């Protein structure tokens, strides 16, 4: 899976958040979008995901031989982000079951294994409304990283995690990242420890 941005820009009203982003994101590579608070990291990640529209430039998914329509890209990616809400009425077991109706897990990952890998096996029957913020973040990471998709988009993946949670995150990426394309928006080196490519949002302020 390849994602190509060509002179891509996004504005809110008259405010350009970034302009002129030209970058190809390739299979198996790990990219970090860096920048201070409010600089536009989440916005760029959401533009890449197709969740919000860009205002100029072109974004292409797939390869020239096998292009993917922008409105079908959501099937190929999984996202973990602070602004994505979980359904609080559901239990952990139910939210995993709900998720699996749309995206299956990687081969060999059962709901029980997923819960155990993020240290939540004892909370299987608990409603999400009673989860701590760190527990919720662990679920979001599990749902995204265990999804059997070629692209992972992670927005501030260690939000609300304690030291043990950060270790869990890093272990999950190392063990299950595989040959997937991973893009992280972050300003914390612990979150982008695995990245070899860096985009600085400040380079795209014109
Ligand atoms: N829907 C919106 N309408 C108007 N402005 C917006 C909207 N969403 C974001 N912005 C603005 O776009 C800018 C970039 O926000 P964004 O959330 O992408 O930054 P960020 O780099 O991810 O920040 P942080 O590190 O704090 O998460 C901010 O100035 C924000 O106020």
UniProtKB/TrEMBL annotation:
<dbReference type="GO" id="GO:0005524">
    <property type="term" value="F:ATP binding"/>
</dbReference>
<dbReference type="Pfam" id="PF00005">
    <property type="entry name" value="ABC_tran"/>
</dbReference>
<dbReference type="InterPro" id="IPR027417">
    <property type="entry name" value="P-loop_NTPase"/>
</dbReference>
<dbReference type="InterPro" id="IPR051782">
    <property type="entry name" value="ABC_Transporter_VariousFunc"/>
</dbReference>
<protein>
    <submittedName>
        <fullName>ATP-binding cassette domain-containing protein</fullName>
    </submittedName>
</protein>
<dbReference type="InterPro" id="IPR003439">
    <property type="entry name" value="ABC_transporter-like_ATP-bd"/>
</dbReference>
<dbReference type="GO" id="GO:0016887">
    <property type="term" value="F:ATP hydrolysis activity"/>
</dbReference>
<dbReference type="InterPro" id="IPR017871">
    <property type="entry name" value="ABC_transporter-like_CS"/>
</dbReference>
<dbReference type="InterPro" id="IPR003593">
    <property type="entry name" value="AAA+_ATPase"/>
</dbReference>
<keyword id="KW-0547">Nucleotide-binding</keyword>
<keyword id="KW-0813">Transport</keyword>
<keyword id="KW-0067">ATP-binding</keyword>
């Amino acid at each position: 899976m390849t994602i190509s941005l060509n002179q891509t820009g996004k504005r809110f009203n008259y405010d350009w958040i970034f302009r002129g982003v030209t970058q190809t994101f390739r299979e198996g590579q790990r990219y970090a979008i860096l920048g201070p608070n409010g600089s536009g990291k989440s916005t760029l990640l959401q533009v890449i995901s197709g969740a919000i529209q860009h205002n100029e430039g072109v974004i292409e998914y797939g390869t020239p031989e096998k292009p993917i329509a922008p409105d079908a890209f959501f099937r190929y990616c999984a996202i973990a982000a602070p602004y994505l809400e979980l359904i609080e009425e559901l239990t952990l077991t139910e939210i995993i079951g709900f998720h699996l109706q749309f995206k299956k897990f990687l081969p060999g990952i059962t709901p029980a294994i997923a819960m155990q890998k993020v240290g939540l096996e004892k909370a299987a029957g608990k409603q999400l409304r009673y989860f701590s913020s760190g527990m919720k973040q662990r679920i979001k990471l599990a749902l995204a990283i265990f999804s059997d998709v070629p692209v992972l988009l992670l927005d501030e993946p260690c939000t609300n995690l304690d030291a043990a949670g950060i270790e869990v995150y890093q272990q999950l990426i190392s063990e299950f990242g595989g040959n997937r394309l991973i893009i992280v928006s972050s300003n914390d080196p612990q979150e982008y420890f695995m990245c070899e490519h860096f985009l600085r949002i400040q380079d795209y302020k014109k």
